[in-house]
Specification:
This protein is of the alpha+beta class and 697 residues long. Among the domains are: 92-192, Arc Repressor Mutant, subunit A (Orthogonal Bundle), CATH 1.10.10.1230; 326-548 and 584-694, Beta-lactamase (3-Layer(aba) Sandwich). α16 runs antiparallel to α26 (678-694) and α20 crosses α22 (518-525).
């Protein structure tokens, strides 16, 4: 008889084998898939994943280059670049503060630190540094309750940090050794720069020994490097220096108020820029094309190498319109006259004088000079300072020098014509002091009015423009409001009361009076109401000299491509062409009439400047000016009475029949009682110097 259990057992065996086979087959498939996947990863994508493991990042960083050079019109080098040793630090993105401190400490053993950099370390820097060096002690300065408030959101982490700072004691700060402070000064430099941008640690007084020590130990100083930096150098010392302008240093870098402006244009925070005058105005030209180098970072963000991509090119060079030797001579003339006249008891407020010389045909500035001679309380003596920028940033009442514009305005408005005679005698309006010339001249024409500098002739011309005339003493006189606008608009055609357009920043236009009555209109006609700059005065006389064209003054003549070889001048990049801003809306014969009047001033008997110039071979024409003014200089206390004083001016051009130079001389607050004639003395010596230089003497 068959056993049922045995039958049942026999039926199960095929089922178990089948399941085992399925399991083995599944394992085989999974193993095959794994092998296949590994093969794909290794063979197909192997290089990709290898690169990912070895991934690096390349970042391009700009490298500053020296600024362009500046020459005078004869290519005498007046602004150079002087190479200096420098030590830099480049901060990576992943460097730890502790690592930076360690490098700073090592570097401090190889270099000295300037007093300036040591003094730059403030108490807050010391406190921050103390916290970095003493993290555990710093933590203990915060209570558990305060930490709990931070957790509860009642305090922020910055609040806790402030508490730590406040609780650092003077004793703890005093624990810093000289070496610690030296390390701090260096660390402060490290921390001031931006990531991957070289920050200058030291570039003043870096010795060859220091350069050698740092170079030999660069492996121990990650981020530190050495290179040749540069500073501006001035072969002619202070001559024209205020006009040349200043640049920022590597320490100061970009001005805070202009950081956004310059960084948006690719500048680095520590980059040098022009801060004033020519350096500022021509920043785009002088700055140059920065070099580029590639910084390679590993996956962790550490710098593993650098590669120069382009060397860059220093800025383009400027050639000025100024002859530096003539400029020096003019400055010396001003200095000598200031010193010679300052000793007089008549010159209490005299402290400055200006000369502007320009080519009336092209607008080229031939000299731009100003000096200020004043008492220095710290040095306890009088010192002479350059004040050339005052030629276009300060304005004064110019007096009779502007009478040429008054006569031409009278012609244009039809109130006088060439040859018109007017009677020179005091004018006495109701409730005012008499207004008069320095002497009663009687009947005079326009030429005599210019030659002898009649005030009354100008007064009568001005009030005629105002729509009235003087007929009797104690007369009440009203002039039209428009008469001031008429005269100012005519004056503006010469450049008076208007920006000249010079290629220098910060030009001022002077003061325009806002009260309008007959007495002030008369004052306006003789240059004793509105104020003008010495440069405006030079543009004005140049306009008369050249026959009526207001030429735009400029101090840069050419721009040159830079060349590496010292002493060589590169090709011309751009030349500044003469530019006429406007033509006088006046007849040529009228302009020639005023030119004749100016000639008589300096050449004919009775001319106000004839005693200084009638015998000179260069035969100038010109107009003297004396303005009654009120002292408002640096020693005046606002709110107090302004002392009476006199301004002296002189405008001129030479030779009168073929002008090649036009000048303005301005001596504010020249005297209080007796005329020292500084304006004419300075002008005479400036002309003598110019024509001597021209003749090769």
């Amino acid at each position: 008889m068959n056993n049922p259990r045995k039958r049942k057992k026999k039926k199960r065996k095929p089922s178990l084998a089948f399941r085992t086979n399925i399991l083995l087959f599944t394992v085989f498939l999974l193993f095959t898939a794994l092998i296949l996947r590994l093969g794909i990863l290794q063979i197909v994508h192997g290089d990709t994943y290898k690169k990912e493991v070895e991934k690096t990042e390349d970042i391009t960083v700009n490298k500053p280059v020296p600024r362009g050079l500046i020459y005078d019109r004869n290519y005498h080098l007046i602004v150079d670049n002087e190479g200096i040793n420098a030590i830099t630090y480049t901060r990576s993105k992943t460097v730890k503060t502790t690592e930076m401190i360690e490098v700073a400490e090592k570097l401090s053993k190889f270099i000295s630190i300037n007093d300036e950099d040591m003094k730059a370390v403030k108490e807050r820097d010391m406190k921050d540094f103390w916290i970095l060096l003493h993290p555990e002690e710093a933590k203990k300065k915060i209570t558990k309750a305060e930490y709990q408030k931070e957790s509860d959101g009642e305090l922020e982490s910055k609040d806790l940090y402030k508490l730590q700072l406040d609780r650092i004691t003077e004793k703890e700060l005093a624990s810093f050794s000289k070496q610690d402070l030296k390390t701090l000064a260096i660390f402060r430099k490290f921390n001031s720069g931006t990531y991957l941008t070289p920050e200058i640690v030291k570039n003043k007084g870096v010795t060859d020994k220091e350069m050698a020590l740092v170079s030999e130990n660069l492996d121990e100083l990650p981020g530190v490097d050495t290179y040749v930096d540069w500073n501006r150098k001035y072969p002619f010392d202070s001559t024209l220096k205020s006009i040349l302008g200043r640049t920022s240093s590597a320490n100061t870098g970009l001005p805070k108020e202009k950081v956004e402006y310059y960084t948006s244009r690719g500048y680095s925070l520590n980059e040098r820029i022009g801060l004033s005058n020519l350096e500022l105005y021509y920043e785009d030209i002088l700055h140059g094309q920065k070099g580029k180098f590639k910084t390679t970072l590993d996956k962790a963000g550490n710098i593993i190498g650098t590669e120069s991509l382009t060397e860059g090119q220093r800025g383009k060079d400027l050639a000025l319109t100024i002859d530096i030797n003539f400029q020096k001579k003019v400055e010396t003339i001003i200095e000598n006259e200031l010193k010679a006249n300052k000793g007089s008891g008549n010159t209490k407020f005299l402290d400055r004088a200006f000369v502007v010389a320009m080519d009336p045909n092209t607008g080229e500035i031939l000299a731009l000079a100003g000096k200020r001679y004043s008492y220095d309380e710290e040095q306890r003596k009088y010192v002479m300072n350059d004040f050339a920028q005052g030629t276009y940033t300060t304005a004064y009442a110019m007096g009779s020098s502007v009478k040429g514009a008054t006569i031409l305005t009278g012609y244009q408005e039809g109130v006088i014509s060439p040859g018109t005679v007017q009677y020179d005698a005091p004018i006495k309006l109701k409730d005012t002091n008499a207004k008069k010339s320095y002497t009663n001249m009687g009947p005079i024409n326009d030429l005599t009015a210019l030659k002898r500098s009649s005030n009354v002739y100008m007064f009568k011309t001005a009030i005629a423009i105002g729509g009235t005339q003087y007929t009797r003493p104690e007369q009440t006189m009203n002039v039209t409001d428009e008469s001031f606008d008429i005269m100012r608009n005519r004056y503006a055609e010469f450049g008076l009361g208007k920006q000249t357009g010079i290629d220098l920043p910060g030009e001022q236009i002077g003061y325009k009076g806002n009260i309008r009555h007959a007495g002030l209109l008369m004052d306006f006609s003789i240059g004793q109401y509105d104020t003008y700059t010495p440069l405006q005065l030079a543009q004005y006389v140049s306009t008369i000299a050249n026959g009526g064209y207001r030429m735009e003054p400029h101090i840069v003549k050419k721009m040159h491509e830079p060349v590496m070889k010292k002493g060589e001048i590169g090709p011309v990049f751009k030349e500044i062409a003469p530019k006429s801003l406007n033509k006088l809306s006046m007849k040529d014969e009228w302009i020639k009439r005023v030119q004749e009047g100016f000639r008589q001033v300096t050449q004919d008997t009775g001319g106000t400047a004839a005693s200084f110039f009638a015998d000179r071979p260069y035969k100038p024409a010109g107009k003297t000016g004396t303005a009654q003014a009120f002292y408002d200089g640096p020693n005046w206390v606002p709110g107090t009475v302004q002392p009476d004083t006199w301004n002296l001016t002189f405008v001129s051009y030479a030779p009168y029949d073929n002008p090649e130079i036009a000048i303005s001389v301005v001596v504010p607050w020249a005297y209080q009682s007796s005329d020292n004639q500084m304006n004419k003395k300075i002008a005479q010596k400036v002309y003598d110097a110019y024509f001597n230089f021209k003749g090769g003497q």
